Structure formats: C-alpha cells, structure tokens
Amino acid sequence: MKQNNIKIIKYIPKYAKQTVEMWRECKELAIGQKETHSFDNHLYFLNHILTDHFQVDLALIDEKVVGMIAYNDREINQLYIHIEFQGIGIGQTLLDRVKAQSSGRLTLYTFEVNEKAQRFYEKHGFEMIGRGYENEENLPDIQYEWSAK
C-alpha cells in the first residue's frame, strides 16, 4: 500500500462508526483488555466530548478510516492506526502534521504495556518524562514529551 493513497481530513461524523470500530480494535489489541465503555458511549465520547476539546483528524484510504489523531497545540490525546495499516507511515504523517501545528512542545500518554507505541514515539523524538496510573483502565502509563529543537 503506497502512502500517497492516504487522504487526511478533519473529522466528520459520517466516519464516526468506522473511527470507533478501528479505535476499539487497536486499543484492545495494544493493551490486552476489552474496552470498558459500550460502543454507543464511545461514539458519544468521540462526537460530543473529544471533538469539543481537541482537533480530530482522520487518515482515509478509499473512504476507509485507517487512522485517527486527536490533539491541540500542546497535547496528543489519541493516536490510533488501523491494525492492517500500521508500519507504512500513516502514524508518522499524522504526527508530523501535529508537530508542525504545535506550540513547539507536545505531551502524550501511552500505556506501559504498549511497547509498540513507546518505540514509535521514541523513534519520532519523544522522551519519557513521567509514569503514572491516571487512566480509567487502571494500567500503568508513561508520559512522553517532544519539543522542537
């Protein structure tokens, strides 16, 4: 799959179901536990909470949601790439766009069990700045920071 087939758009609700399906599947695989919220609650969160507090962009290939990122100029709140489309540069494309629009410094959290995400962020210039348990999954997490040099 060539990366030039990828279209990045601002989130629109017609992609809500696909986005949540992809998000849940990726997260469950990454952390090894089922999503605690119902699908409808997750849709509500995306459409009424996340999008009120963060810019949400989607990566599409032929109208299929293959990635999503939620961010502002200081923080990345969510970043998920469809399992079948990982490792081809979609995450880097989304991350580079957010870095370019940032204040020059970004923070994010990832689960300690998600070693794949840790490698990804470290490869792209993020450094660990803390650890904690401040998530509803009650899993240890790692806080990362990136700053423009």
From TrEMBL:
<dbReference type="InterPro" id="IPR000182">
    <property type="entry name" value="GNAT_dom"/>
</dbReference>
<dbReference type="InterPro" id="IPR016181">
    <property type="entry name" value="Acyl_CoA_acyltransferase"/>
</dbReference>
<dbReference type="InterPro" id="IPR050276">
    <property type="entry name" value="MshD_Acetyltransferase"/>
</dbReference>
<dbReference type="Pfam" id="PF13673">
    <property type="entry name" value="Acetyltransf_10"/>
</dbReference>
<dbReference type="GO" id="GO:0016747">
    <property type="term" value="F:acyltransferase activity, transferring groups other than amino-acyl groups"/>
</dbReference>
<protein>
    <submittedName>
        <fullName>GNAT family acetyltransferase</fullName>
    </submittedName>
</protein>
<keyword id="KW-0808">Transferase</keyword>
<feature type="domain" description="N-acetyltransferase">
    <location>
        <begin position="6"/>
        <end position="149"/>
    </location>
</feature>
